[in-house]
Amino acid sequence: MTERPILLDPTAELEPAKRARQARPARLDGLTVGILDISKPRGDVFLDRLDERLSARGIAVKRYRKPTVARPAPAALTRQIVDEVDVVIEGLAD
Q1: Is there a domain that residue 5 lies in?
Q2: Which of 62, 65, 68 is nearest to 50 (CA)?
Q3: Interatomic CA distance for residues 12 and 43, integer angstroms
Q4: Do the domain assignments include residue 15?
Q5: pTM beyond cutoff 0.85
Q6: What is the band of 34 on the pLDDT scale with cuts at 50, 70, 90?
């Protein structure tokens, strides 16, 4: 028996808003992939490799970085990402 996972928003919401997942694209070809580095130590190492692999497949990649891991991405950065890419990969590491 497989249960669907419950996703929680890690922000400071007192009562989490329910958000429907968007459908994943069947392919990344022709899309622009955004890579968001949340500023955790060594996250860039993983994301650099991911960028290399996507770019090697001819997939357009745009990189973004939060100013600090301790806070949500600034609204202006979030809006920029929404305006510029089709899908986002958010990475963290330690």
Answers
A1: no
A2: 62
A3: 23
A4: no
A5: no
A6: very high
